[in-house]
Amino acid sequence: MQPRNMSMSGVVDLAAVKAAGEAKQKAEQVRADAAERGDSAAPSGLVINVDEASFEAEVLQRSAEVPVVIDFWAEWCEPCKQLGPVLERLAQEYAGRFLLAKIDVDHNQMLFQQFGVQGIPAVFAVVAGQALPLFQGAAPEQQIRETLDQLIQVSEQRFGITGLQGVPEGDAEGAEAEGEEAPAAPEPPEDPALAAAHSALDAGDLNGAVQAYKNVLADEPGNTEARLGLAQAELLARVQDLDAQQVRKEAADQPTAVDVQLKAADLDLVGGHVEDAFGRIVETVKRTAGDDRERARLRLLELFEVIGADDPRVVTARSALARVLF
Fold first, then answer.
1. What SUPFAM superfamilies does the annotation carry (predicted)?
2. In terms of domains, do 252 and 270 share one?
3. Of 200, 221, 241, which residue is a domain's last?
């Protein structure tokens, strides 16, 4: 099975906005409790076997302190045998910046179904209790590293989760044979205006976040992070007061009503149904003309920003849109 990339920026839900602030507080409390107990080092088990009975304690609770990467596998799965050792080695190398939880799907069908796994190996992450797909299939190691780096960055910036403390560093790629560790590159200081926008989004101040991102873009029109943040904030602002059940009923009853279809597409995307959201708007573009068509087209481009231009689902939807327009 070919690996299927999952863009981190494509995982958006309303609960995550509230969860971000709560997770930061919980992570700080976890670290404070550990310090009070005198725990100077993190648990040595960076790779753990998890089942349905231990899932809440080992995955959900610990995801407030460290990103938990889940490897869904089975003994009979040959690609799983290729991917598993790579993930285990990287868990040691990353030294507590993420925890690897291995779940045997043959013995944990409930978890398999709850995550909506369609094939194995499948890799998910849980951060602050929020589940998100990473990739499916035995992906190349460089791709896995890039995905993990992005996961760690999002966990820290959005949720204040920095991982386990006191774990010895593993053998980094490209390290000297003598065992010398290359000095870590210093983190560049974050733009204060962008940091203010992120903080507003994390706090659930969607109007403030929208304005803050617009302020950044006024000075830096090409700022990719600000464009993504603005698209996410505007999406969340649009859906926060919607009655999802009512909108979906109206969308089913009024397939040609542009406003209703756009609201339903926003809800689809927030709920993680990316292909459904894109397909709904492409069909709306196909059925409409003039200003209505242009409005639907522009909304689809905004949702592309939320997911990320390099996501294969965006590439597919762009092609579908082009076929409808031309």
1. Thioredoxin-like
2. yes
3. 241
